[in-house]
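Quick one from the shared queue. A colleague (R.T.) flagged TIR domain-containing protein as missing a structural entry in our internal table.

Convert sequence to structure tokens.
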Amino acid sequence: MSGSLAARLNASAEATATTGNSASSSAEVRRVESSADEAEVSGCVKAPPPYYDVFINHRWVDTRHTVARLLHDRLLQLSGGRVRTFLDSMSLRPGDRLVEGINHGMSQCKVAVAIFSEQYLDSEFCLHELAALVEARKVIVPIFYGVKPSALVLPQAVVDTHAPRDVERFRVALREAKYTVGLAYDPATGDLAELVSAAANAVMQRIEQIESMR
């Protein structure tokens, strides 16, 4: 990944952390005002960006066609369409800006699901997203998909190719995830339907808790 893209991811992470769990009324007001200004200039009204309740942080090559997509669909079904879930392959459309779209999903979500899989730690996107979610103090439900929490150690290749500041952010985020109660799954012996059901129920419970406190 290029240095410019990493810089944009860092900027997105800082914006998400600053926003925190409030992602909120002031941000919504600014978004509405911005949309109004643009409409006035262009002569047309633009639809506001979609709102998301859940953000799924995952490694595309490991989980896109399994737990990530199934969890996305299960949450939609379980909530009767009320809960909107950001999953890159489902939520981003041709022409969308990748980093801006991901940051939008992270900044708004009430709950994030981090799916740690075999190749997760090799992805700069996954690590930046996790760091941004932790820094924004989002509720994170970890799924250890074929890996153990003790395996969440930053690879030396990542340490050697990233700035010390990013390395520290990644390590803090992984340490936070490692000590958060999550769901464990062994692809060789586990029941995927049970995992998806348990994860969806955990997410819905967290959302209900958050909404009840407002």
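Confidence is low (pLDDT under 50) at residues 18-43.
The radius of gyration is 17 Å.
Added to the table.
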